[in-house]
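User: Design a sequence. Structure:
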């Protein structure tokens, strides 16, 4: 990841299309699920994630939005 949200390094980002919530999970050292985190980000119909050249994360919506994830 980029440097804007260093606390998310190693976390897998995902979103719920219907609820519009962006979340993250991290695996434990043994490779099994360890923790889920609700990032408190609401996006209408999120469909994908991307990164810019610096590695900063973005979420894309079905409505055509491209939103950069930044700390609150």
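Assistant: Done.
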């Amino acid at each position: 990841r980029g440097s804007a949200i260093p606390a998310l390094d190693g976390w897998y980002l995902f979103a719920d299309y219907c609820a519009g919530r962006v979340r993250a999970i991290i695996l434990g050292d043994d490779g099994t699920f360890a923790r889920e985190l609700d990032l408190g980000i609401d996006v209408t119909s999120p469909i994908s994630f991307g990164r810019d050249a610096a590695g900063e994360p973005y979420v894309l919506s079905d409505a055509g939005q491209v939103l950069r994830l930044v700390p609150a």
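Residues 6-68 form one domain. Residues 15 and 22 are 4 Å apart (CA to CA).
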